[in-house]
Amino acid sequence: MPPLKIAIFEDEFLLANDLKRQIEQFNYKVIAIFRKAEDGLKAFKEITQPENLPDIVLMDISLAGKMTGIEAAQIMMEEYDFALVFLTGMSQMDVFEGVFKNKPQVFLIKPFDIQQALGSIRLAVYQKTLENQLLKYKNELEGKLNG
Fold first, then answer.
1. Which of 11, 13, 38, 144 could make a disulfide contact with 64, Cβ separation 3.0–4.6 Å?
2. With contact defined as beta carbons under 8 Å apart, do 63 and 89 qualify?
3. Using an 8 Å Cβ cutoff, are 29 and 6 in contact?
4. Which domains are present in the chain?
5. Can you give the pLDDT at residue 90?
6. Alpha-carbon distance 133 to 128, whole Å?
């Protein structure tokens, strides 16, 4: 099985590179790191083959650009089909309320250790797989009922 492709949206350079270094030791491939949501959205739009998109996005809520991670995730979840994990150092419930609208599979609250990150990544991918299977079965059932 090829390694899962991950895109990291994180404005803290050292944290992003440390996370990349650590998770790549466990058969994951970090295909990109973005400090700004705008840069990531632009890069994703330029990808013409769906298989070149990430399987999972690790999205910090606070990014360097004008757009927040919450805003970027909302756009991405409408256009792409990948698992989403929000990264945050904030633990206030008002932040989480805005995040829930994007249907993330998992939250990671910083600081986190690599075992926690790996478990969250695996859980997010598993949940996204289940969601996709459920949607497929729903569409098949609706097709049978309507056809």
1. 11
2. no
3. yes
4. 4-146 (3.40.50.2300)
5. 63
6. 9
